[in-house]
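re the bet — no i am not wrong, look at it urself. input seq straight from the record:
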Amino acid sequence: MIRYWTIKPGEGVGSLQAQEKPASFLGAGEVRVSIKANSINSRDIMAAMGMSPLPLPDQIIPVSDGAGIVVETGAEVSEFAVGDRVVIAFNPSHQDGPFQSHMAMGALGEIRPGILASEVVIEESALVHLPDNISFEQAACLPCVAVTAWNALYEQSALLPGQSVLVVGTGSVALAAMQLAKAGGALVGVTSSDNAKLEQAVGLGADFTVNYRENPDWSEVVKNLTGGVGVDVVVETAGPPSIAQSVKACAQGGRVMEIGLKAMEGPPINILDLLVGGVRIFPVMVGSRAVLRRVVAAVSRNGLKVPISDRFGFDDAPDAFAAFMSPKSSGKTVIFHEEEGATA
């Protein structure tokens, strides 16, 4: 029997329910994966709260991110074999290239069932090989946050070695972006209102930090810390509350990569700051399976680690969702399915 969790969109995380069903047969091109670890993302909470922009069914299997081992392959499968370690792409419909709106329906954990289950049957084109030096827990943290960070830095803004990056915030996407930018040879700064989280960022490699609560005009501090120049790229995870300052923090020709929305309202952007500074603002989506391949290679090569703040067993999924929603969380929340081979 397959064990899995369901949730009722609009009824919150309290509607999580453990269920079982018989194993399904494999079709041509499909693979059965025994899931070893999952991680929770903000979109999973939004789906539970009924805040997804998509028309969700009454009940869904949540969670898009996970990693495991191939235990069976169907006819016409050529890229994977039984025993292969794999990580599952966030949106199997997005194989490569720019995101197209019609692909939104293919993201896991919303209209398409997610992977908070003991095993899943999925097309082989959803999988990426996982090197032995990346744990299942670490791999489960990559498909959404690390791919989004990589997409912002290297696919859309074409970050070059020696350039400078400012990461706004200290959430999981922000910390992944900080580490990936640092690994690419960039000077990296981080903003937060929490000095303890800024210390954590320094421990992960940040070159400078700014407390935006202590410095309301923090863009001026960033300019001073970069010799009066500003930064080449801002990875913006807060949205309207800080985007005006992010624009001001840019160097001439800088790019603001807009990822997150902590709130819908904030100070207006001065259009002259955009025009005179030649600053461009880009919306950033998660990223393709091809990007996940590049992220896995970079993480393996550089030994990067996504900070994990909480770990819960599969049977304790409701506690994992609650921990993720806690303001005390300072990293990813992971659900492991078994201890062996799953530690970060």
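see?? The chain is about 25% helix and 25% strand. told u. also The two ends are 28 Å apart (CA to CA). so pay up
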